[in-house]
């Protein structure tokens, strides 16, 4: 392809830097934009009442005519969860492998846009042309099958995006990463590598998923009663190993939890899960079988309040009880922020008399990460041998650690770009530099509202959550300068009213006195009355309680 | 001492089981009650707006005439933080070692009850008589100096409470645990051991605090610029090692952060910290000195929003800036729940160009735990050789793991009591059994309020935090059956009003229509009007937004 001096390649993140998730990287060559992934993230703890967070895609909407498609590397929520929202603003084709598209289709159906969305099935051998950008793929290992990395060939040079990956030399179902193809891509020359930084802080190698299978079979065999295993629903390889261990130990499997049932169905239909006839039993049948012939596969490995395992632990599950002597395996590591939820679930399970196998300390190998550790990240860097490097997917400290690894394998420090969402890296005539900043950020989703909850609303929720609210209602006669009715004080989330009558009576008096004085002084502008009531009452309550509830004066005048 | 068949020893927890902290165990022999520790805990994430949590001590208040004193094992918040509240209800003598009392006195002074509280200084060799209970002590190792375990000798048998402990064979300042005395106590015969379970999930031995010193000196020496070290203010041994490493590497120390300054002062005055003349410089002097001659010792190892390190990381500290190339050491492990705060601080420090040494992965030994791991817990069990065992201090799963360790060293399963707060273990005529449950629980402190925030208030705060509140104000004429003014809708924390005018206009109409219809139907009981407005508006808003704000109808009638 011809190329002139004005031609330019841009690489930037709309999501993927910062708290886990919400991955979205963008490659633009002149008038062709390819988006890699469209994930969501779960709200940070100060985003009160928010359900999920997606990337701000205003840049893409403004350049809609240039967007050639969204390429999805794998079917995890933090890579596909934003699609239902993004596609409503940006109806462009979505490219994904079979399982990935299967999972996406479920989401689009729920959102009512399945019919409107062009979905294009790819496999690791596909070659697609996205405008001037020829796009190929390579198989990777990750904690979900059918994950790929992407090679985007532009006239300015080749861009490689790894997606999430590890190198598993003994993968489940022989799903090897394609080392040869990655090496070949590297040999042909790579301008810039974007590589997964999730485990950049972790030395060594991430163990193989197969290790988990050995361990599970051993535990299944030694357990005299039922075995309950909680893991991520999307970890189809893990589920396959749980099935294999069940076969080997002559146990049947009950599948419990909506998303687990859902993924088991999709993955078996699409051929990613091999379940012999008669292996699966209904949860209702569990109690009819000998305890040592049963495995219960369920959701809840993160201690999520409404999940199957949490309900079992609290003895509120409709179909399954945990009995003393049962073995419960939590085959997952808590995502940061979930440690206490998981801890509480483990506590409850112990109280019920279960043997619980959990956590990094005593987990004895029932979980391995889906992300490569430092040695694997260096292997990827050495296979791809890029000129420039952009660490992706991770908090800033992980990106920095990944940058350090890249320096260690010999990439020049000035050829490494640690970027924030919205930072662009510009490649022109073989040279890279930081480009202009583009709009990027969080769009908060609360119920049906997309972006309608902003800082003011969040600040109010924060205030309300700390000390509650007092509504003060009073009716004044402007002419007479007297209080006709009230003040009535209604409080929510401040104090337990029945036990604080004295305090609220005093508060009432403060309001009356304040208003009466103002009216006597002929101050009767509405705003001034309100401000004075707020101040006087706020001061009094702070003195009495050291709390600062929100105060909402409602002053009616007749 | 004579003893008859009715005599009885009770052991129970008022705090110490469940989320970290709030430790308080009670030993009662007939009419003599001894309390061990009076800690606080920090609120769980669903205790919105709560500052701290202390144990419910109603049992002690009801038996005030029997309480002989509160024995404090060491000066950590989770062992002394409840004292200002407890002593207001229970004015009994407090026993503690020198540093422990020093820290307690600061608290009591702040609470204005220092003069009213009888404080009795003990050391590891003290023997005190608390009614019929002869009490002796033994030195332990922990992450604060001057920590002790307690031996309570009752006619029914001896009770040993370890406090928090580890076994450090190379302790800082030669503060060895008194292995000989513990062994001697064991040899004389122990009825029941209460032992710290914090690290019962962790295999092996906890490394010595001295290891940290070696590491710190190495880092100090290799750093070409300033070194910032954040650690727990109360970890006086750690601070001593930071001082020693500074001396060895010819650096001066600036102390930053209120609690760090406070502890450094108290600990030096009392002789627990040896600081050569001229070592300490003012924070203001830092910028005048060569960068490789300075150490900044500060608070903020947990990423606490208002702490010194967090301010430095955000470039909002008044006196100290982090410069590119500075080394920052976070010499602590995040307490569960604080991981994200610490992560964000590390991110910010990296953004400023600092080298950051943090976290278990890459910490390279800049922190060790103050609690013994499994081998140390077994060593304690074997030294004390108790007949009965009660694991203390920890979440339920940790207590269970500790119980398993006790079984492993040969204690009969039926002689091990894993108890919840309020469960009693009764010892009578040499036999132990579970006794009656007594009142125990959490008392929530919010500002000056002690226990005035209960479930209803917390539920309201939760609701308010999720979707905010709508106050609907309307004035009706009962006689005419018409709406005189309003409805006016005031919202807080629901939607950003300026961008949702259409929604709120609609909501207004719903309220009007609902009220008008009711009045036309001659339904005009106040309660019924309110309920109907709430229901209709709630339904409408949920349909439109999938949110459920709190709705507060204020209906005035004239």
TrEMBL record, chains A, B:
UniProt-annotated binding residues for substrate: 367-371
Name the UniProt key words of this record, in alphabetical order: Cytoplasm, Endonuclease, Exonuclease, Hydrolase, Metal-binding, Nuclease, RNA-binding, rRNA processing, Zinc
The protein's required cofactors? Zn(2+)
Annotated coiled-coil segments of the chain: none
What reaction(s) does this enzyme catalyze? 3',5'-cyclic UMP + H2O = UMP + H(+); 3',5'-cyclic CMP + H2O = CMP + H(+)
What SMART domains does UniProt report for this protein, alphabetically? Lactamase_B
* GO molecular function per UniProt: hydrolase activity
The record, for Pfam families, names: Lactamase_B (PF00753), RMMBL (PF07521), RNase_J_b_CASP (PF22505), RNase_J_C (PF17770)
Comment on bound cofactor: Binds 2 Zn(2+) ions per subunit. It is not clear if Zn(2+) or Mg(2+) is physiologically important.
Where does the record place the Metallo-beta-lactamase domain?
21-216
Spell out the subcellular localization from the entry.
Cytoplasm
Question: What start and end residues bound the annotated signal peptide?
Answer: none
EC number(s) for this protein? 3.1.-.-
Where does the source fall among the domains of life?
A: Bacteria
Function according to Swiss-Prot or TrEMBL = An RNase that has 5'-3' exonuclease and possibly endonuclease activity. Involved in maturation of rRNA and in some organisms also mRNA maturation and/or decay.
| Membership in a protein family | Belongs to the metallo-beta-lactamase superfamily. RNA-metabolizing metallo-beta-lactamase-like family. Bacterial RNase J subfamily.
HAMAP family membership: RNase_J_bact
UniProt subunit comment? Homodimer, may be a subunit of the RNA degradosome.
Q: Could you tell me what this protein is called?
A: Ribonuclease J
């Amino acid at each position: 392809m011809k190329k002139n001096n004005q031609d330019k390649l841009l690489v930037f993140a709309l999501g993927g830097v910062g708290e886990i998730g919400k991955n979205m990287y963008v490659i633009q060559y002149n008038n062709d934009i390819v988006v890699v992934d469209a994930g969501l993230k779960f709200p940070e703890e100060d985003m009160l009442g928010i359900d999920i967070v997606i990337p701000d895609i205003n840049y893409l909407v403004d350049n809609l005519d240039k967007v050639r498609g969204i390429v999805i590397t794998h079917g995890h929520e933090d890579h596909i969860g934003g699609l239902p929202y993004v596609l409503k603003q940006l109806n462009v084709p979505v490219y994904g492998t079979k399982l990935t598209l299967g999972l996406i289709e479920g989401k689009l159906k729920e959102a009512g846009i399945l019919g409107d969305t062009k979905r294009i099935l790819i496999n690791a051998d596909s070659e697609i042309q996205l405008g001037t950008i020829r796009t190929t793929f390579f198989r990777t290992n990750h904690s979900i099958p059918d994950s790929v990395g992407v090679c985007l060939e532009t006239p300015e040079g080749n861009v490689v995006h790894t997606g999430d990956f590890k190198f598993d030399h003994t993968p489940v179902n022989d799903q090897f990463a394609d080392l040869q193809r990655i090496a070949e891509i590297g040999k042909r020359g790579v301008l810039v590598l974007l590589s997964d930084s999730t485990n950049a802080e972790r030395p060594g190698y991430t163990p193989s998923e197969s290790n988990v299978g050995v361990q599970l079979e051993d535990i299944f065999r030694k357990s005299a009663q039922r075995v309950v295993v909680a893991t991520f629903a999307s970890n189809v390889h893990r589920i396959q190993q749980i099935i294999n261990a069940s076969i080997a130990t002559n146990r049947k499997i009950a599948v419990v939890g909506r998303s687990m049932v859902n993924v088991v169905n999709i993955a078996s239909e699409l051929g990613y899960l091999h379940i012999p006839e008669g292996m699966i039993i209904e949860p209702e049948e569990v109690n009819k079988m000998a305890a040592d012939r049963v495995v219960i596969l369920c959701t809840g490995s993160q201690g999520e309040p409404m999940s199957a395992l949490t309900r079992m632990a609290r003895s509120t599950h409709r179909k399954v009880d945990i009995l003393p002597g049962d073995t419960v395996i939590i085959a997952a590591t808590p995502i940061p922020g979930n440690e206490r939820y998981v801890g509480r679930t483990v506590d409850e399970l112990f109280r019920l008399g279960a043997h619980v196998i959990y956590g990094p300390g005593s987990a004895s190998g029932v979980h391995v990460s889906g992300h490569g550790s430092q040695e694997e990240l260096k292997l990827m860097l050495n296979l791809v041998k890029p000129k420039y490097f952009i660490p992706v997917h991770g908090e800033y400290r992980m990106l920095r650690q990944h940058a350090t690894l890249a320096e260690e394998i010999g990439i020049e420090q000035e050829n490494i770009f640690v970027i924030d969402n919205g930072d662009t890296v510009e490649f022109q005539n073989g040279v890279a530099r930081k480009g202009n900043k583009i709009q990027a950020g969080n769009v908060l989703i609360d119920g049906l509202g997309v972006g309608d909850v902003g800082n003011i609303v969040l600040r109010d929720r924060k205030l309300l959550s700390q000390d509650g609210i007092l509504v003060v209602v009073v009716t004044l006669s402007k002419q007479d300068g007297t209080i006709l009715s009230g003040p009535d004080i209604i409080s929510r989330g401040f104090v337990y009213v029945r036990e604080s009558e004295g305090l609220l009576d005093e508060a009432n008096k403060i309001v009356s006195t304040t208003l009466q004085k103002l009216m006597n002084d002929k101050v009767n502008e509405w705003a001034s009355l309100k401000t004075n009531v707020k101040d006087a009452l706020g001061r009094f309550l702070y003195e009495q309680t050291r709390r600062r509830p929100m105060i909402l004066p409602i002053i009616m005048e007749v």
